[in-house]
Amino acid sequence: MRQPAHDPVQRLNEHHADDLLALARTLGGHPDAASARAEHIGPTGVDLVVDSPHGRSTTHIDFVEPAAGNSELRLAFRALAAVARATTARGERSAP
Q1: Is 59 in contact with 30 (CB distance < 8 Å)?
Q2: pTM of the entire structure?
Q3: Per-block mean pLDDT, blocks of 10 residues, the chain (96 long)
Q4: In order of start, what are the domains of the chain with their CATH numbers?
Q5: What span, in angstroms and rounded, lies between the C-alpha atoms of 37 and 9?
Q6: Helical pair 8-15 and 69-90, crossing angle rounded to 10 deg
Q7: Residue 57 — φ and ψ, nearest 5°?
């Protein structure tokens, strides 16, 4: 079986580790996350596996609007990452 030419989950984990951690901490409800990796990205959002002092857990972070196709997934992820980075820069926590 052929591997897909572009695996968006692998790309997120290899090139956007800081963004994934910021998402877990600010929008994913894990302010004490030590690491985060993408497990799945789809039309509604991104699923993360998060490691924290409390153990390993998963979280789903919704996109603002559903995305269709790789280009829309990229744009939706970039928008979430920008919110997470801005929130981190201000020292805020968006998630309950």
Answers
A1: yes
A2: 0.86
A3: 69 96 96 97 97 97 93 94 90 55
A4: 8-85 (3.20.180.10)
A5: 9
A6: 30
A7: -150, 175
